[in-house]
Design a protein that fits this description.
The complex is a heterotrimer of chains A (700), B (184) and C (302). Chain A is built from 18 helices and 23 strands. By secondary structure, chain A is of the alpha+beta class. Chain A has four domains: 167 residues, Aldehyde oxidase/xanthine dehydrogenase, molybdopterin binding domain (Aldehyde Oxidoreductase, domain 4); 150 residues, Aldehyde Oxidoreductase, domain 4, CATH 3.30.365.10; 208 residues, Aldehyde oxidase/xanthine dehydrogenase, molybdopterin binding domain (Aldehyde Oxidoreductase, domain 4), CATH 3.30.365; 118 residues, Aldehyde Oxidoreductase, domain 4, CATH 3.30.365. In chain A, the strands form five sheets. A seven-stranded mixed sheet of chain A has the order 3-5-1-12-9-10-11, sandwiched between helices. In chain A, strands 7-15-14-13-8 form a five-stranded mixed sheet, sandwiched between helices. In chain A, a hairpin with a 5-residue loop joins strand 17 and strand 18. Chain B is α+β, with helices and mostly antiparallel strands and 184 residues long. Chain B has five helices and six strands; from the N terminus they run E-E-E-H-E-E-E-H-H-H-H. Chain B is elongated, with a radius of gyration of 18 Å. Chain C is α+β, with helices and mostly antiparallel strands. Chain C has one domain: Uridine Diphospho-n-acetylenolpyruvylglucosamine Reductase, domain 3, CATH 3.30.465. In chain C, strands 3-4-7-5-6 form a five-stranded antiparallel sheet. In chain C, a hairpin with a 2-residue loop joins strand 9 and strand 10. In chain C, helix 4 packs antiparallel against helix 8 and helix 10 packs antiparallel against helix 11. The chains are: A alpha+beta (700), B alpha+beta (184), C alpha+beta (302). Chains in contact: A-B, A-C, B-C. Strand 1 of chain B pairs parallel with strand 2 of chain C.
Amino acid sequence: MSGWPKNPKQLGKEHLRYDGLVKVTGSARYASDVQPAGWLYAMILRSPWPAARIRAIDLGPASSVPGIRAVVMADDPPFVVRYCGEELAAVAGLSKQACLDALRAIKVEADILPFVAKEEDALRDASPRVFENQPNAAQPREMQTGDAEAAFKTADKTVEGFFQTQVQLHNCLETHGNTVKFGPDGVTCWSSTQAISSVRDGLADNLGIPLDKVAVISEFMGGGFGSKAGAGVEGGLAARLSKEAGGLPVRLMLTRFDEALAVGNRPSSFQKVRLGAKADGTLVAYQLDAFGTAGYASGGATAAGGGGAGFPAPYIYRVPNTRVRQTTVAINAGSARAMRAPGHPQASFGMESILDEMALALGMDPVELRIKNDPSEIRREQYRIAAERFDWKAKYHSPASSEGPVKTGVGCAGATWGGGGRGSEAEVRINPDGTVEVRCGTQDIGTGTKTLIAVVAAEVFDLEPSAISVKIGDTAFPPSGGSGGSTTAASVAPAVFDACQNALADLVPASGMSVPTGPNWRSAAARLRVNPIVARGRWKEGLSSKGVGGVQMAEVEVDTETGMIRVKRIVCVQDCGLVINRLASISQINGGIIMGIGFALYEERILDRQTGVVLNPNFETYKLPGAADVPELDVILQDMPERGVIGIGEPVTIPTAAAIANAVSHAIGKRVTRLPISPAQILGLLGKTPGITNPSRGTG
Amino acid sequence: MAGTLAKVSAAAQSIESLDGQKPVGPGPAKVGLQVNGNRHELEVEPRVTLLDVLRNKLQLTGAKEVCDRATCGACTVLADGQPVYSCMKLAIEVQDRAITTVEGLSHPDDPTPIQRAFVEHDGLMCGYCTPGFVMSLTALFNARKNPSMEEIKKACSGNLCRCGAYPHIFKAAQSVAQAGPAGH
Amino acid sequence: MLSTPESRFLAGGVDLLGEMKDYIVSPKRVIDLKQIPGLDQIDTTTDTWKVGANVTIAELARNDAIKANLSGLAEAALEVGSPQIRNVATLGGNLAQHSRCWYYRHRDLRCLKRGGSTCYAREGENKYHSLFSGNPCISPVVSNLAVILSALNARVRVQRAGKEVTLSMEELYSDAWNNPLAHNSLRPGDLIVQVEVPTQKNRSAYLQVGEKGDFDWALVSCAVAGQNTGGRLSDLSIFLGAVAPVPYQVESPLLEGGELSKETIESIAGNIASKATPMAHNGYKVPIAQALVRRALTRVIS
């Protein structure tokens, strides 16, 4: 199927990151680094209350703070705020200090309203309502296949469980924000974004100015993970401040505190699961009642994918009879946004955990149980490959049987993801001196987009990637889509390939050489004399496809006296169709696994029931994996060039936590039911904590 | 953060001599900084951090503001060769220290062995944490020519990478360690 | 001037600047201690070592004499923060640091410790909080060095209103046991200038358990110190950190012939469990404390 060359010279090899040098030397300029002449520092005042009716905002005292050049309200009072962190006003001035003083000078009159901070509380009839005229719980979504109730009666074994996952934050290192310059020619916005076109659309709409007067630039950005899909409230505020300040550029980057409150999160999940199987391991019935929160709103408004707190169930396994009921419940908290494989890590944890319960009940090897019920041939093969590399059979013994207080355990889990490509365009320029420029209005969110563009062009022209000059991240360039859903490589690579082929088709007659590529390049280009060849291309069929699998196995050690968990090793077998840059792909896999380790063991946004505030709006108690938390990672990246480019960013983070949870459960002989897994939970499960009867409840 | 700073002269023999000192600020005060071998005379309020000055007054934007609370390392610079969080240092309190930022390590076209190793082993993705890691590891290799993996991880323990580039960061550092003194 | 309540001392700055950035404290005057000469020395010439308050945590961790003779102190220092923090944080600052309770530190709350009316942690998210407390505030002491220095019977020299007073470690923290507003017993204007550490206890160990593998606060820490004379251990002290507003002393066992008997371990474990008053989410600290005490004792005895 694939239209890519059969024996590529560049595709699939290890390539150095195109912009590695500028990044390691600190010369790469991100949106937060850009400093147009006369730029102003800006900050946002946010609601300290989880629910309030804002009656009045007095900006006067802020305006008179020395150094302040503009103040704006986020909305015209009276208006209602529904979470701690909702925007109230913004200021711009000559320094951060002026802004800090100005924020503290603003006087806000508000009536505090009742609020609700926990999902279980929000489900109760008597709960305060996030929106006055509607219940907190959305209409349940119910799906059925076959007849689950009847099928359970035919099951030889039935297992049940209640599983919970936490609200997780993106916490990209570069916060959300923009540097906006509002001038006579229009607006220029340097944005930390995954979607320059969306930022452009948002700003134009917000300010009521035509699109041709808005330019957005994002050449380097410090991480998105799904949270940076538009201009955001902060982009609109920055533009208004710039206008207020007579067009002076305004840099408004959020603080780390802001990031925990107002720019998205992964919804929580509370999953009541029931699974029935035959004695030979065939799954026959599955039942799920689940709810979770996407914050005050459904989460669908700005997400790049999937609104609400729903997730696929029974995830990747074939069960002929299912009854799935899911609800999203609102609480007074910031709205969810798509976060790296939305829904899937939650789905994986619940499903893979109950599957391991079933394996125990049946006395069956967990890997064999999965292979038996997984309809994906790719994944079944990945289980076999992983099992061999991992030495699964030898490591899988009766649970909690190792000697001494430190117990070893192993677990596995699988993933699925779509990916695939869609409309993207690109432009290639071949200059008479032989230099090549490729332009594409796409983004590089750390994934190595520039590199893959250079590699594709190099492949077509039979050059080295270092001979290709790549320019991205500008709405002046040919349009591409937002970088989400693991679709960038599969969208951009075909477009660049097409553009390069079109350019080549022009170079042949223009140079009079039938093979102008490779060693002939310089002389072929020289024949162009004065005018470069400029060719456009667009995404076309035959170079990309959808659908990947992925399997991970984890080995952990649990200190049963202290509850401390250490992940020793993870084996990952991942496919992504045609690999363009092996080195960057491995980096992505490593990164996804490490983010999965964070989801498994450390990360949780903690919203306080009494006060409605986020208790950990920082890296002190919102814990990201650090150098000491990285296990041995053994990655097998499969090559399936015949499937074309697919995408790898998201599948790799899906099964990690599930595999780790299964490994921990295996180690201690008790089922882990909640993420993140903490020493507190371990000790509770082992019955060592005084007074704990149900360790699955609460944050312990 | 309204405060003033009483700078104690080096000749003070006892703590009581602080009583006689004239406080500096809260308005802008003269601050002299030594950064990457260059002397800078500035006027900033005492409450302004070193990170703020580096990025917003000196346009040295390699050090990043990520947490502003000494928890992530993206703002790491060297003070007399020692890695410190520049977000948790006031500009006015480091006047007597030689500050090195990532820009001071090399010319952008002539990277150090550590920087080259980062590129060769892909020890980065979005790159936002990278200058901080480079500074921490630069300090390590200035002190130890052949650090063990344990020492490498310890040196990196104050730096966070959300993209999860740690495995390749360690590989990059290991390659420099194995290259030996010639590789520095 | 030094004794005005609106002055704060700046040493490493990690604690003070963090509090100032969130407006937990807003001192009118900040005094840079680093300019005071003579506070950064480690004097090992007598039996009682004298460590200046401005000695950095990094220096404590790498000092050869301390590593050899007061190993628990070096171990505790190495667990403080990260390299960047250890390079600037000081002994005095570490001992005097303020509560890390997330309610206390939240810029939009005013908890009991900050003069408000409620200890939110009591009915709220208290997984990191105290197992033992003599007052309504359950914020625990988090200084690693306070725990080991307590076990080592250190004494702290403090400049107070123009005079010098010497406090035992217990006296340094005792106010925090009874007074919800107190982080320690230091009064406004008090300045720690030096810590005196006796070296008779030539065996010491420090252990902690955190959630992350490094650069994380301890869930529970434990320091043990004793004097080993010809194989016999005497003068044993056991202290726990992060379980009480003060370094919490666990009653020392009677050792028979230098061996740690099963009965002794069980009685210590029983002591901890029986005296603890766990909150809704921190009961897990009891088994961790029990395990750390046993492991630290085993280290020191072997």
